[in-house]
Amino acid sequence: MSNSNLIEFLRTVAARADVLQTLNVKSKDEVIAAAADFGLPFTEAEFDSLIWDLELQLAAKRGEKFDQQFPLWHTMWGKYYFEYLVTDLMPSLEEAGVIPSGSRS
Question: Residue 18 falls within a domain, yes or no?
């Protein structure tokens, strides 16, 4: 349940530029609290585990090494990490079929 909450939270934020802008400068704890406020709770451990696992799956699906040179990470330059998750990682996961495409709330 928490994994689906995290994915749905990232999708929800993707559809809400105002929320993304606000959360970009917040701590991880504040972002997790915001997710709970949206009714989509998850823990820090669940966040770390799922994001890492999804990035590993994406690299494997794309035939890329998951190391310091992982190509998708280069899209993070000049962005906040949370913005990267919402605008780069999630669409890439959906495009590669790692997670099913979902509606953006």
Answer: yes
**Is 103 inside any structural domain?**
no
Q: Looking at residue 103, what is its pLDDT?
A: 55
Count structural domains, the chain: 1
Q: Give mean pLDDT, residues 65-80.
A: 82
Tell whether pTM > 0.85: no
Identify whether 6 is part of a domain: yes
Residue 20 sits in which domain range? 2-96
What pLDDT score does 1 carry? 63
Averaged pLDDT score across all residues of the chain:
90
Q: How many CB atoms lie within 10 A of CB 47?
A: 19
Closest C-alpha among 17, 13, 55 to residue 32: 13
Cβ neighbours of residue 82 closer than 8 Å, sequence gap 6 or more? 13, 20, 23, 24, 26, 31
> For the chain, how far is it from start to end, CA to CA, in angstroms?
18
Q: Show the tokens assigned to 77.
A: 């330059």
Q: Is residue 21 part of a domain?
A: yes
